[in-house]
Amino acid sequence: MSVADIYSWLEDNVVAEAVRGTPYLYPTLETIHIIGIALLAGPAAAFDLRLLGFGRRLLSVTVAADYLLPLARIGFAVAAVTGIAMFLPGANLIADRASAPWKLGLLIIAGLNIALFHRRMYRNVAGWDLDRPPPGTARLAAVVSLASWSGVTLAGRLLAYT
Ligand code: HEM
């Protein structure tokens, strides 16, 4: 079975049929995808800015994480579910676009960056929670996060063109 066969099989499943055959479902999914992106990218960027030192006298990193990161996780889940639903009906066509590997690769980089941040830098947060500049590694994670989510957004938009 080739990769193209897998995409063709994805295009024939019940969700793909429903997205193809239901008027206005695709633009509705696109709209919800964008709401999910806002819920992901907004709080993630606010947390990244706090990691870069903005507002460090006003707000602790742990409070910022507790408020912002659950919202970002919900946003990612919404974007992922709607993204997969939009991918299925045109799997062969979409996977073939030049921007597709960029979007997937940047999603993987963003995910690895989150895992590394929580396993390494965030463990020592007590030392720089409030009123202290975050360490260089945490600031680097913030820059990678801002760049990778911006890149995923750009690659997502480009999916419609190339
Ligand atoms: C996690 C799984 C995801 C999948 C499978 C996915 C898949 C898709 C698909 C199939 C499209 C429609 C492309 C077209 O119009 O032909 C799309 C659009 C888009 N995606 Fe995603 N996506 C995902 C997550 C994300 C995330 C996390 C972001 C941003 C942080 C994002 C940003 C965008 C943008 C900006 C668009 C264009 C929306 C528009 O102009 O209507 N996607 N995505």
What is the topological layout?
Blueprint: H1 3-11, H2 14-21, H3 25-51, H4 61-87, H5 91-95, H6 99-119, H7 136-158
The structure holds protoporphyrin IX containing FE.
Report on the architecture of this protein.
Helix content is 74%, strand content 0%. It is an all-alpha fold. The chain has one domain. α3 packs antiparallel against α4, α3 packs antiparallel against α7 (136-158) and α6 (99-119) packs antiparallel against α7. The chain binds protoporphyrin IX containing FE. Residues 30, 33-34, 37, 40-41, 76, 79-80, 83-84, 86-87, 94, 107, 149, 152-153, 156-157, 159-160 line the site of protoporphyrin IX containing FE. Keywords: Membrane, Transmembrane, Transmembrane helix. This is DUF2214 domain-containing protein.
Concise account of the structure shown:
The protein is mostly helical and 162 residues long. It has helices at 3-11, 14-21, 25-51, 61-87, 91-95, 99-119, 136-158.
Number of domains: 1
Number of helices: 7
Percent of residues in beta strands?
under 5%
Which structural class should the secondary elements be placed in? mainly alpha
Specify the biggest β-sheet: none
H/E element string? HHHHHHH
Number of beta strands: 0
First-last Cα distance: 27 Å
Contiguous uncertain segments of 5+ residues: none
* Distinct ligands, ions and cofactors found in the model: protoporphyrin IX containing FE
Share of helical residues: over 70%
The coarse silhouette is elongated
Gyration radius (Cα, Å) is: 18 Å
Mean pLDDT: 97
Organism: Nocardioides oleivorans
Transmembrane segments: 32-55, 67-88, 100-117
Protein name: DUF2214 domain-containing protein
Keywords: Membrane, Transmembrane, Transmembrane helix
